[in-house]
Amino acid sequence: MSLLPRYLIRSRPSIPSPSLSFRNRMLHTSRPLQAETRGPVDPPPAPAGAAPHTAIMDVVAGLAEGPVVPVEDASVVAAEVVSGAPHELQLRQVRIFKPTKSTMQSAKGKTKRWVLDWDVLQGAGRWENPLMGWASSADYMQGTTLGFRSKEAAISFAERQGWDYIVSEPKVAKIPPKNYANNYVHVPGKLRIHHTK
Amino acid sequence: MLRRFTAGRSIARRLAQGQAQPARLFSTSQPRKADITLTVDGKEVTVPQGTALIQACEAAGAAVPRFCYHDRLAIAGNCRMCLVEVERSPKPVASCAMPAMPGSKVFTNTPLVHKAREGVMEFLLANHPLDCPICDQGGECDLQDQSMRYGSDRTRFHEITGKRAVENKDLGPIVKTSMNRCIQCTRCVRFANDVAGVEELGTTGRGNDLQIGMYIEKTMDSEMSGNIIDLCPVGALTSKPYAFQARPWELKKTESIDVLDAVGSNIRVDSRGVQVMRIQPKINDEINEEWINDKTRYAYDGLKYQRLTTPLVREGDRFVPASWEHAMDTIRHGLQSSGAKGDEIKAVAGHTADTESLVALKDFINRLGSENLTLDQSLGDAPPVTGVDVRSNYLFNTGIENVGEADAVLLIGTNPRHEAAIINTRFRKSYLQTGAEFGLIGEDFDSVFEYDHVGTSPSDVEAFLSGKAVKGKGKGENDFARIWKEAKKPLIVVGSAVVEGKDGAAVLKAISKHVLANEKKFVTPEWNGFSILQRAASRAAAYDAGFTPSPTSTNTTPKFVYLLNADEIDPSTIPENAFVVYQGHHGDLGAQFADVCLPGAAYTEKSSTWVNTEGRSQLGRVAVVPPGASREDWKIIRALSEIVGSPIPYDDIIQLRQRMWDISPTLVRYDVIEKPSLEFIKLGLQLLSTPPSTTKAASTTPFKKPINDFYRTDAISRASVTMAACSKAFTKKEYDIASVDEAGSAQASYA
Ligand code: SF4
Ligand code: FES
């Protein structure tokens, strides 16, 4: 089973759905920050035998050197337990990808960051509102995309939230060296093309 | 990867030069020479020799504005927007037309450069109409963006005669022109010449009077024409079906996979609300580079029409809308009352069935005790002649990326232009750049490269491959039989229609024998010259999943038929009194025979796996929700299996994909091609070369093209209005060139 690709393994197979009473207690809107609970400087004590990890927020805050090493240990509390996010969100696989350059324009804007977003929800994702013909949605995630500087950051975020994710790797563009002189190279044999430029 | 690719090519080229062959060895990709180092904006950068300066600047992270330069086209050097300053050069230099020189110092951000860019912008805008608010390019226009960034903020335009006015051209139902806006970058011309093979699109006149057009009044008849809309950096060429429909910033962009042919082109689905507004290519150099064909691009309006939105149950001679429960229950009744047992339960998988639903349907039907899993093709009831045990026997083993390396290509019973337009552009590229030679056994077609027509029928294949000199019919310039013998990297492309045909086994036998006899050339660690070209998006996945009938099931008369997206079905294969279920997204041919129709999702509405003809599995994405009560296909099958009383054991998509992993790991290893070992490939070929003794000898019946109308090949494109217009204009050649300028009032020729 260890050969299984990552996206076929659930991020957190054993998280039980938070019971209603549990969630009722979580009424505050701002969730405790990792930095608040742990103190920003001291890294949390790693459980015995666990590999050391680097929290993304510490890297972002310049408190630790990159790269981010995600927490591999499921016993470390995941953000989902305290985030107050609806349990249904845990059931949706997120996509992590790097948008490809638009073919309509030459410039490469918006292709440098990694994006995490959700698939359109079947059924409740969008419908045409009968009153005005506008699009309505019951999916609170339909307009949300998260941007990250690196793939690792996106993955570790998803893992801490307990989201199943799937990563699509970007394709490298393979552009051969180009040369103006090639327009004028003599080709022996029959002419295969008549340029009309 | 790039390194290996070019190195391989250059070796082939050097080898070829050693022989005194009339090799045509020119290419836009120079053989890789030593690297050179130069300085761009104070930053050192190392690039291969022969690189254009603009590429070197890009490698150094400096943005150089451009209009005419395009990564995948030849260099023109006529817009002058890419001017940069080079040390010790008296004038600014057009960086796209200038090779990078070792040790030179380049500046892309100096007052001189700024002034030069501003000047170029001013010249370009002097004759550019102030159309932006009503121009479809608005929001994704290079000219707009670059004039904001590099242009001047005030005008010196006081021309009494006004701006230049150019007559619009009518290029057909796809490309809308507004030639006043053209900045004469000639990207469209270069694309048409080099990639699409339309050598009529060109320029007339010089300087200010230069015009782009077809020379004579004619449509641009190419299956790739939509790409010039993307290439045009301004709004001179825009999309007719999409005209005034949306602005780019309103669109939600979803990267997905195309399923209208078996190439698996990467696409970006742009949607607004519940509608797909347009489809754009997604760049993937391993498959479609930056292009997609017109069917991929414009069949999307078919997703709006003829849809099944609610389950339908036949009552007498009409369909009555029903609830899902009622429809499912009717199927349960139908299955029981039809009395179908074992192989009498038959499933047919169509061209656009996704892998998840194929696997679910296979498990479901198997659970009902049947092995009768057939494919929607001629002779689909019988086990495929290629077998499904060895993957390399039914896949395009060469790989789309590598077809350009072949020096001689033999096409057997296929028209790549219609069956895989993207692969066809690669053929044209190698025809022009590396001098590949082509031969065809099969029906003639209107090709964008020259080929030698060396036969028409299965027996001609045998004759040609066994070396019995078949004289070329003279379309090509050379004797293809001789070229074929001397080829270093020969490639045989067998069309899917051949494999599905009556003579499939015999033809494959002849080919595999030939391949095994010339093993050193055909099957090496770097090269596999035996390829089957599939044309249906679901076919490779169906073979991978083992969605094929058992030898015994072929002869049973089905009493219960499950059609999954099967719209090419031959009505005679459905018995009169059988209970028929159709699951699919369009009310096309298959639905007409159904007793119950179950509405599924189209490819833009489900996140499913597709395996292309190379055997590369890719994951599509949901762009919009399925309309009405329709549902994702595998979920329908899952629900039905529960109602019928033998539930298939997976509840969500991850479990289903784990099941797919169990069947074949290649199905869920996305974006990569699994290469089989040489021994395995040879084993497969040996299997093909020893078909069962019942195999008949190859006949002399000519091969037939499976696709006669490129624009109408599946349920989606048949429902599309744009595709109907294209079919009329390009296939039937019935298009009245409208005099575009006479349509409204005369265009203003004053400022
Ligand atoms: S029509 Fe567009 S692509 Fe063609 S030359 Fe004019 S500006 Fe360039
Ligand atoms: S991009 Fe260099 S001249 Fe046009």
TrEMBL record, chain A:
What is this protein's function? Accessory subunit of the mitochondrial membrane respiratory chain NADH dehydrogenase (Complex I), that is believed not to be involved in catalysis. Complex I functions in the transfer of electrons from NADH to the respiratory chain. The immediate electron acceptor for the enzyme is believed to be ubiquinone.
Location comes to: Mitochondrion inner membrane
Q: What is this protein called?
A: NADH dehydrogenase [ubiquinone] iron-sulfur protein 4, mitochondrial
The UniProt entry, under PANTHER family, shows: NADH DEHYDROGENASE [UBIQUINONE] IRON-SULFUR PROTEIN 4, MITOCHONDRIAL (PTHR12219:SF8), NADH-UBIQUINONE OXIDOREDUCTASE (PTHR12219)
Q: Which InterPro entries match?
A: NADH_UbQ_FeS_4_mit-like (IPR006885), NDUFS4-like_sf (IPR038532)
The membrane topology term of the UniProt record is:
Peripheral membrane protein
The record's annotation in Pfam families points to: NDUS4 (PF04800)
Q: Name the protein family.
A: Belongs to the complex I NDUFS4 subunit family.
Please give the organism: Naematelia encephala
> Sorted alphabetically, which Gene3D superfamilies does this protein's record hold?
atu1810 like domain (3.30.160.190)
* Region span, Disordered: 31-51
One GO BP on record is:
electron transport chain
Per UniProt, which keywords does this protein have? Electron transport, Membrane, Mitochondrion, Mitochondrion inner membrane, Respiratory chain, Transit peptide, Transport
Task: State a GO cellular component annotated for this protein.
Answer: mitochondrial inner membrane
Superkingdom of origin organism: Eukaryota
TrEMBL record, chain B:
Give the organism the record lists. Answer: Naematelia encephala
Q: Which NCBIfam families match?
A: NuoG (TIGR01973)
- Please list the residue ranges annotated as the 4Fe-4S His(Cys)3-ligated-type domain: 112-151
Residue stretches making up the 4Fe-4S Mo/W bis-MGD-type domain: 251-307
Per the record, the domain of life is Eukaryota
One annotated Gene Ontology cellular component of this protein: membrane
Pfam families in UniProt: Fer2_4, Fer4_NDSU1, Fer4_Nqo3, Molybdopterin, NADH-G_4Fe-4S_3, NADH_dhqG_C
2Fe-2S ferredoxin-type domain: which residues? 34-112
Which cofactors does the annotated protein need, by name? [4Fe-4S] cluster; [2Fe-2S] cluster
What Gene Ontology molecular function terms does this protein carry?
A: 4 iron, 4 sulfur cluster binding; metal ion binding; NADH dehydrogenase (ubiquinone) activity; oxidoreductase activity, acting on NAD(P)H
InterPro entries listed in its UniProt record? 2Fe-2S_ferredoxin-like_sf, 2Fe-2S_ferredoxin-type, Mopterin_OxRdtase, Mopterin_OxRdtase_4Fe-4S_dom, NADH_UbQ_OxRdtase_75kDa_su_CS, NADH_UbQ_OxRdtase_ferredoxin, NADH_UbQ_OxRdtase_Gsu, NADH_UbQ_OxRdtase_Gsu_4Fe4S-bd
- What name is this protein filed under? NADH-ubiquinone oxidoreductase 78 kDa subunit, mitochondrial
UniProt GO BP = ATP synthesis coupled electron transport
Q: Which family does it belong to?
A: Belongs to the complex I 75 kDa subunit family.
- Name the CDD domains for this protein: fer2 (cd00207), MopB_Res-Cmplx1_Nad11 (cd02773)
Q: Which UniProt keywords apply?
A: 4Fe-4S, Iron, Iron-sulfur, Metal-binding, NAD, Translocase
